[in-house]
Amino acid sequence: MTIYALSTGPGISGIAIVRVSGEDTKKVIKLLTNEALPEPRVATLRKINKINTSELIDEGIILWFPGPESYTGEDMVEFHIHGSKAVIDALHHSISKVENCRLAEAGEFTKLAFQNGKINLLKAESIADLISAETEIQRQQAIKIMNGKSADKFNSLREKLLKILSHVEAKIDFPDEDLPEDIFKNIKKISNEVILNIKKILDDQKVGERIREGFKIAIIGPTNAGKSSLLNHLSNRDAAIVSEIAGTTRDVIETHLNIDGYPVVVSDTAGIRDSKNEIEKKGIKLALDKADNADLKLIVIDAKSIDFKGVLKELMDENAILVINKSDLLKEDLNSEIKNYEHVLISVKNNLNLEDLILKIKNKLKNKFIISEDILITRERHRQHLEQSLNYLKNFEEKNEAEDFDKAAEDLRLATRHLGMIVGKVDVEEILGSIFNDFCIGK
After folding, report:
1. Distances (CA, A) of 24 to 5, 34, 116, 402
2. For the CA atoms of 81, 83, 86, 89, what is the dihedral angle to 10 degrees?
């Protein structure tokens, strides 16, 4: 089957690129141009015509990549045409008339590149991350993964496990042979090294996931404290409905921000109060769940009627800032208990001290986003496989010590398998769908 799709963004543009990949790519080029194939990897100006009628669609550049020297590993061509909807639609319609040609699915070009051994699974994921990067720090992280450092590290650990697995299997297959004593010492030494390495990789404060998904900030507080107004100010738009009526916000409203190059997801939540309304009660539960999972909590209270007790007080920790809104209405000093918490007095309505709050948020971000060369995990999938590998390695060591070599070998195989699944060294069909569905059409 041959696939085709627009690989540049939709909408009017100077240039659009339509990719075609598969065994009928040569046929597509010849039918659309009525000429012989261009030189491989040489930009060639050609008239592109409708199939069967020879009516001109456009005049553009053709780049022809014979397989396996292409992105997908198959025969592939790129048509560089003018980026109007009419031109793109006409070219798509003509290609669809070629037998065995169909529109590509999301991420299918990169999926083919993986399946044909052109890239590993980590690089495929990093390409998706690079395409969707909105901040400089996300771009940097995606480039680091693309350069292969993570894959090299995981492959190195896997190869060490394969080495000791061969020694354990030798003991199983030749029980009567006296294997050198240093082999058994080496098994223990290498397994300990791999365990320590995996523990170090896992002890990363989830910075990689934070960079990729965004630093989570939850705005929490009682009703009518100004939470939605604060969200709207931070996002510079009316993301949330603002009303004097208590309990306006029932669901969680999220907005994505770029603060000094750091990706941030800010959530406005339902006001915390005792309520008999079932819908509002569910909103309050969602608010508390967001607070539990947030990297930073902005606990917003009203200066003219300070309500800071119960669950709100319990939420104050090192990952929380107490935000006292409507400070222009404050008629007396804050009590000493409130002053002891990390706090900032603001007025969203009068635009007072909001820069101070943003500065505090920035400082929290910088502390969380300390960039380390050792950050190798960018997705929960990676973390789960590493944790599974670590568990099987611990089981292996216990069984190896007890000289239960058959069961020890199985634990070692499973530990090796989970490391392999990170880079795609083993059968990973069950996870391919979820990975490549994150891609846009045409990539």
Report:
1. 15, 15, 17, 59
2. 70
Query: What is the architecture of the domain spanning 147-204+376-436?
Result: Up-down Bundle (1.20)
Domain boundaries, the chain: 2-104, 147-204+376-436, 212-368
Count of CB atoms within 10 A of residue 268's CB? 30
Regarding beta strands 320-325 and 343-345, do their DSSP bridges make them parallel or antiparallel, or are they unpaired? parallel
Do 2-104 and 147-204+376-436 agree at the fold level?
no
**Superfamily designation of domain 212-368:** P-loop containing nucleotide triphosphate hydrolases (3.40.50.300)
Distances, alpha carbon 418 to alpha carbons 151, 222, 323, 385, in Å: 13, 46, 45, 5
Q: Which of 353, 364, 358 is nearest to 330 (CA)?
A: 353
Domain 2-104 -> CATH class: alpha beta
**Tokens linked to 328:** 């222009």
The identity of residue 94, as a single letter, is S
Q: Using an 8 Å Cβ cutoff, are 328 and 360 in contact?
A: no
Per-residue pLDDT of the chain (443 residues; tens, 9 = 90+): 999 999 998 888 999 999 999 999 999 999 999 999 999 999 999 999 999 888 999 999 999 999 999 999 999 999 999 999 999 999 999 999 999 999 999 999 999 999 999 999 999 999 999 998 888 888 988 998 998 889 999 999 999 998 888 888 777 766 656 666 677 778 888 999 999 999 999 988 888 888 888 888 988 888 778 888 888 888 775 444 333 434 444 456 788 888 877 888 888 876 665 555 555 567 666 777 777 888 888 988 887 777 677 777 788 888 889 888 888 777 667 776 777 788 888 888 888 888 888 888 888 888 776 655 667 899 999 999 999 999 999 999 888 777 777 888 899 999 999 999 999 876 545 445 545 665 566 66
Q: Going by C-beta distance under 8 Å and a sequence separation of 6 or more, which residues neighbour residue 291?
A: 218, 220, 269, 297, 315
How far, in Å, CA of 226 to CA of 328, rounded?
13
Residue 248 · residue 259 · CB < 8 Å:
no
Report d(CA 413, CA 41) in Å as an integer.
43
Q: What is the pTM of this model?
A: 0.78
Helix axes 405-423, 149-173, angle to 10 degrees: 160
Backbone angles phi, psi at 117, to 5 degrees: 75, 20
Q: Characterize the bridge pairing of strands 262-268 and 215-220.
A: parallel
- Least Cα distance to 286 among 240, 252, 256, 249 occurs for 252
